[in-house]
Amino acid sequence: MGLPREFVVFDTETTGMPPGARLVEIGALKVRGGNIIDRYEQLIYPETPIPPGVIRVHGIEDKDVAEAPTAAEALPKFLKWVGKLPLVGHNVRFDASMLAVEAVRVGLILPENPTLCSLQASRGLLKRRSHSLENLVRELELPVADHHRALADAQHTLHLLWKLESLFGREFHRSHLGAGAPLSSFVPDPVRLPVSRAILAEAAAQGEAIDLNYRLANGHIYRTRVSPRLIYRSGKHGWMEALCHDACFYKSYRLDRVVGAQLAPDAAPVEARRIR
User: Residue 145: which residues within 8 A CB-CB, separation 6 or more?
Assistant: First the structure.
C-alpha cells in the first residue's frame, strides 16, 4: 500500500528557515479512505517582524497576524487536532522542523507521529528536473489554486499524492514517502556552550534577564538587556533567541559575537509587544 488509510497532510508558512524562523501559518487536511474529512487553517503571531523578502513569497504581513494566537497557544491545539495520525508534507523535514523548534520554545513535549514526504516520493518516481510543488502542479495538470499559503499548499500536496497513486498503482509503496521518522526526532540539537557563556543557557532555563555585550558585524560593541529563550545551532554558528527589552520583540544573536553577559537582577518584567 502507498498512502495510509488515514493521515494528515500539512504545510507551514514561516519567517524564514528553521530552527531560527517562526511559524506564521499552519494549514492541514485530515484524510480518511481517500476523502477529506476535516480542515485546519490558522495564522500565527510570530513575536518578531516578518522579513520583507519572506512577505514577497507568501504575502503574509505583520498586520495580518497582529491579532493571531502565538505558537504557544496554537501548536497544542493543532497537535490535539492531528492526534496520532501520520503527518505528510512536501519536504516534510522543513515543516516538521518548524513544529519541533516551536515546541521546544514553549516547553511542549512532541508526540511520535510518523512523518512522510511527498517530495521524496516525487523524486523517486517521477522524471522531472524540478520537484517543486508549483512546477509539479503545472506539469501534472493538478487542480489550479494559489501557492505559498499553508492550506493551499497542503491541498496541492494531497492532489500530488493522489496523482502518484493513480500513476503508479501498486508500484507506489509507503516506503517511497520515507521511513516515517517521528515528529519528535526533528527537535534541534542542543548547543554545548563554553563555561564563559553558560550564563546564557541558565538565564533561558530560569526565565531571567541578562545584560549583554554584543559585537555587531561592523565590530562595534553595544550593551543591551535581553531575556534568552532558546539556544540553537544553524549552519556553522550557534545562536541565542532572546526578547530584546528595548525593542520588545524577539531577536537572534550569534553566540560567537557575545563578548560579555551578566545577570540583571534589577530588570523590570518586559512583555513582547504586538507588531502591527
Answer: 152, 155, 156
* Spatial contact of 146 and 117, defined as CB atoms under 8 Å apart: no
Q: What is the pLDDT along the chain (276 residues), one digit of tens a residue?
A: 679 999 999 999 999 999 999 999 999 999 999 999 999 999 999 999 999 999 999 999 999 999 999 999 999 999 999 999 999 999 999 999 999 999 999 899 999 999 999 999 999 999 888 999 999 999 999 997 778 899 999 999 999 999 999 999 989 999 999 999 999 999 988 888 988 889 999 999 998 999 999 999 999 999 999 999 999 998 889 999 999 999 999 999 999 999 999 999 888 888 888 888
Q: What is the DSSP letter of 60?
A: -
Strand partners, 87: 8, 115
**Partner residues linked to 27 by β-bridges:** 11, 41
3-class secondary structure, 53: helix
Q: Quick one: which of 32, 180, 21 has its CA closest to 92? A: 180
Query: What are the sequence ranges of the domains in the chain?
Result: 6-186, 195-263
Q: Which residues contact 148 (CB under 8 A, 6 or more apart)?
A: 13, 57, 58, 59
Q: Which ranges of the chain does DSSP label H, i.e. alpha helix?
A: 52-58, 62-65, 71-82, 92-105, 118-125, 133-139, 150-168, 198-206
Dihedral sign for Cα atoms in the order 256, 257, 262, 263: negative
- What pTM value is reported for the model? 0.92
Q: CATH top-level class for 6-186?
A: alpha beta
Q: In what helix (H) or strand (E) does residue 115 lie, and over which residues does it extend?
A: strand 115-117
Instruction: Tell me if domain 6-186 and domain 195-263 are identical in fold.
Output: no
Q: Is domain 195-263 in CATH 1.10.3470, yes or no?
A: no
